[in-house]
Amino acid sequence: MKNILITGGAGFIGSHVVRLFVNKYPHYKIINLDKLTYAGNLANLKDIENKPNYEFVKADIVDEDTLMAIFDAYRFEGVIHLAAESHVDRSISNPKEFIMTNIVGTVNLLNAARSIWKENYSGKRFYHISTDEVYGSLGDEGKFLETTPYDPRSPYSASKASSDHLVRAYNHTFGLPVVISNCSNNYGPFQFPEKLVPLCINNIRHNRTLPVYGEGSNIRDWLYVEDHAKAIDLIFHSGGDGETYNIGGNNEWTNLNLVRKLCEIMDRKLGREAGSSEKLITFVKDRAGHDFRYAIDSTKLQNELGWRPEAKFDEGFEKTIEWYLSNQTWLDDVTSGNYTRYYDGMYKNR
Ligand code: NAD
Ligand code: TYD
User: Could you tell me if residue 329 is inside a domain?
Assistant: First the structure.
């Protein structure tokens, strides 16, 4: 059995990647390494936790010695690195945590991989998962290409950009076999409800206001999380050494229209009068330095590796809302305790 390390596997996207790999590749032993921050939740992996080819290891990627000992013990042949601090608003209130996990943590992983692979890189791969936010903000026209110059504008995107540069530098300087992908906004089951989509679903459920930043005119490209997980599978196995792939849904929405869409579907599913949830929309103070628009050109991934986003937007959103409505205990568990403190702190002055 090949030992494959997935970092951040207890988080939103990581849990989908772990599930896909554990089910699809019985000859891989998947080791999920996660610190279990507020965003990490082993309940996301209940359905596969007893599979013989799955193991969970609780560790912090910032802890260099522990990481090195884990690499020594497991001799991973591949690394898929998703562990990160991922929420822009938190990076504005506490940038340091993002520097530690996203930059220092990534360097620790690169060093640990180098140290066990010892320049014998045959059959090895270090796959770094990144975001389209490293490219900065677009106006009304154009899309991000793999060649678009980096222009990160939030502490989150700056920390991810920095880690991308380091991964490429280890490829160029030490020959470490790396691959990188930069993806647009994901939505789907198991996303922590600090992010726009699950936050709105949860608030509509409780008849709470829906905080839309600024005028709601900012634009994001949305991709169903399982489509991202499938792209990661494809890139991990077939992507070129040292290459970068952009992943996107070709599915742009202004925040206001997206929130309206969620309201419309939720009204239907909850048997509420059409238009009633929309009344919960409340315009609040804008995010500092709020990027206007992200849009991805994923032609390279489509042409070279044959990937296509499968979920149609309406279908993906119906599925997502249905999942949150039939997993209300999951939502209630993650929104108890610290979440309430976070929510009150984040939104009380907006
Ligand atoms: P998430 O916040 O849901 O999960 C992050 C996971 O990393 C959690 O399980 C957390 O416990 C773990 N973690 C955090 N710090 C750690 C540390 N120091 N050591 C070990 N584990 C740690 O994030 P997500 O939305 O699933 O994003 C996963 C990756 O994908 C990130 O690298 C993010 O930058 C990238 N990404 C996310 C999106 C998106 O829309 N969510 C889009 C593009 C790229
Ligand atoms: P988010 O889900 O935090 O993802 P990102 O900042 O990585 O794109 O936010 C998506 C968009 O929604 C972004 O433009 C900010 C906006 N937003 C709101 O309007 N209200 C909210 O309460 C949140 C969390 C986000």
Answer: no
Question: Quick one: tokens of 122?
Answer: 């045959």
Q: Which structural domain, as residue segments, surrounds residue 233? A: 2-186+223-247
pTM to 2 decimal places? 0.98
Report yes or no: 180 and 168 within 8 Å, Cβ to Cβ.
yes
Residue 21 lies in a domain: yes
Identify the pLDDT of residue 329: 93
In short, whether 35's Cβ falls inside 6 Å of ligand 2 is no
Chain segment 279-331, per-residue pLDDT in tens: 999 999 999 999 999 999 999 999 999 999 999 878 999 999 999 999 999 99
In a domain, 309, yes or no: no
Q: How far is the CA of 196 from the centre of ligand 2 (A)?
A: 5
The mean pLDDT of 218-231, rounded to a whole number, is 98
User: 17 near 9, Cβ under 8 Å?
Assistant: yes
Q: In whole angstroms, what is the distance from residue 293 CA to residue 218 CA?
A: 6
* 163 phi, psi to nearest 5 deg: -65, -35
Q: Based on the structure, what is the number of domains in the chain? A: 1
Atom of ligand 1 at shortest range from CA of 156: 34
Within 10 A of 197 (CB to CB), how many other CB atoms are there?
A: 21
Is any atom of ligand 1 closer than 6 Å to the C-beta of 40? yes
CATH of the domain at 135: 3.40.50.720
Percent of the chain with pLDDT over 90: 94
153, part of any domain: yes
Q: Would you state the pLDDT for residue 11?
A: 98
